[in-house]
Specification:
The protein is of the alpha/beta class. The protein folds into 2 domains: about 170 residues, NAD(P)-binding Rossmann-like Domain (Rossmann fold); about 230 residues, Dihydrodipicolinate Reductase, domain 2, CATH 3.30.360. It has 14 helices and 20 strands. The strands form 4 sheets. Strands 7, 10, 11, 14, 15, 16, 17, 18, 19 and 20 form a 10-stranded mixed sheet that branches. A 6-stranded parallel sheet has the order 3-2-1-4-5-6, sandwiched between helices. A hairpin with a 4-residue loop joins strand 14 and strand 15. Helix 5 packs parallel to helix 6. The longest helix has 20 residues.
Length: about 450
């Protein structure tokens, strides 16, 4: 099969949303006799999570390029026989990857503050996108990436929220709540733990293999601190949202999905961050020191929905989601699913292939990466779609803003705007450093 045939398959299949494949769907579906049958992918950001994602992609596509601001990350991944196997091309500038006509899929696992910029440009370049959570850094970025995805509807955009592929725990919980088996839901508690604390940290020259200015991207130019970078960047609001967008992107997602609160115009209407604390002094929503972790380590943020349901996002409960209904309670996390509705099998006969297919938007239940490549072949939205994820990110960012200001804010979910609070509204977007602005396709 020639390259044009391969690309024809990928392009034509994106429009075939109602198509049904004639062979059983297994991991070998994209591993046909000719290597040209398989999509080709590039990993942009190849640290720990990036390497894990790349190994998953390798079951369905061939790695042809690796990109990272840290040359050491890229070289280790290329030397790995299960990844680049010494054959992938290495880049520091992701734009060179997007310029390649032979790259069909990009897997983005950079630090969070780079996600949207790269993703929009990847869509503009005609690539399918698999991006790690949390997708966005700000509420404004939610609008930017939504507009780009609407513009490029023929591209599959998949979010790495793998809990959506956990059948016996999270999908079972979502199904049970949506079917009303717990009765009327009154309260949901989302335990996401608090961010680590630490500092003061030492400033130093960056390692020779790391392009620190590139790594910072849109974020403010600051001196290198090792703890700002690999592995611990999420505990700085400059690059992420702490636990609100880390575990929140997973657990708030499951809670909101179960409550059917992920449509456009839905979401909380008030967010109370009064009961929140940060490990450093804050003024007007900004940390007053630059050498300590600065995301919230102690909080209980109350989100109220128009329906009257309260969702408490806190650092003090067990990591996981507790649903409290008029008939029963259910707790679920990655290790267990518990409660009388589970021990007594209240969902017996009501949680099978039909229900799983509904949760998977009409497609069969399967693994995360497999669903992504199925959608590339068949069309349609994946189980971890960008549009519902952005509704989740609205809630995550609102929790962060309310906590940073230690007050209650009001949100208009239809207009997607903080109302009646000028300071809080100013935190919906951030200034992007010159040369690293995000493309606006609206």
């Amino acid at each position: 099969m020639t390259q044009s045939n391969r690309r024809g398959f990928l392009t034509a299949s994106a429009a075939a949303s109602a198509a049904t494949l004639c062979f059983p769907w297994t991991q070998t579906a994209f591993a046909n006799k000719s290597p040209n049958d398989r999509p080709r992918f590039a990993s942009i950001g190849i640290g720990g999570m990036g390497r894990g994602d790349a190994r998953g992609h390798k079951g369905y596509a061939d790695m042809v390029a690796i990109c990272d601001a840290d040359r050491g990350h890229a070289e280790r991944a290329n030397a790995d026989k299960n990844l680049g196997n010494g054959k992938a091309d290495i880049y520091r500038d992701y734009r060179q990857v997007l310029d390649r006509n032979d790259v069909d899929v990009v897997s983005i696992a950079t630090p969070d503050h780079w996600h949207v910029k790269i993703a929009i440009e990847a869509l503009e370049a005609g690539k399918h996108v698999f991006c790690q959570k949390p997708l966005t850094l700000t509420l404004e970025e939610n609008k930017l990436i939504r507009a780009a995805c609407r513009k490029h509807k023929g591209r599959v955009f998949f979010i790495g929220t793998q809990q959506r592929s956990s059948k016996d725990k999270f999908l079972r919980a979502v199904n049970m709540v949506q079917k009303g088996l717990l009765g009327e839901i009154r309260k949901v508690t989302v335990g996401i733990n608090g961010s680590p604390t630490g500092g003061p940290f030492e400033k130093s020259d960056p390692p020779a293999n790391l392009d620190w200015d590139l790594w910072l991207g849109q974020a403010p130019k600051v001196d290198y601190i090792r703890q700002r970078c690999h592995g611990t960047f999420r505990w700085w609001y400059e690059y992420s949202g702490g636990k609100f967008t880390d575990w929140g992107a997973h657990h708030i997602d499951i809670a909101s999905w179960a409550l059917n609160e992920l449509g456009e115009g839905q979401g909380p209407v008030s967010i109370d961050g009064t009961d929140s604390a940060h490990p450093v002094e804050y003024k007007d929503g900004y940390a007053q020191v630059d050498n300590h972790f600065n995301t919230s380590h102690n909080f209980a943020v109350s989100c109220m929905f128009e329906s009257g349901i309260e969702m408490v996002v806190d650092s003090r409960s067990d990591n996981g989601i507790l649903f409290e209904g008029s008939k029963g309670r259910l707790f679920v996390n990655r290790g267990k699913i518990t409660g009388t509705p589970i021990t007594e099998n209240w969902d017996e006969g009501q949680f099978g292939e039909e229900e799983l297919s509904q949760l998977y938007k009409g497609k069969p239940f399967e693994g995360h990466k497999q669903n992504f490549y199925r959608c590339i072949s068949e069309g349609g939205l994946p189980v971890s779609d960008v549009y519902s994820h952005l509704q989740v990110m609205n809630s995550c960012h609102l929790c962060s803003i309310a906590a940073r200001l230690k007050r209650k804010i009001k949100w208009d979910p239809v207009k997607e705007a903080i109302v009646g609070d000028e300071l809080a509204a100013s935190l919906q977007a951030r200034e992007q450093r010159k040369g690293y602005e995000i493309l606006d396709v609206r």
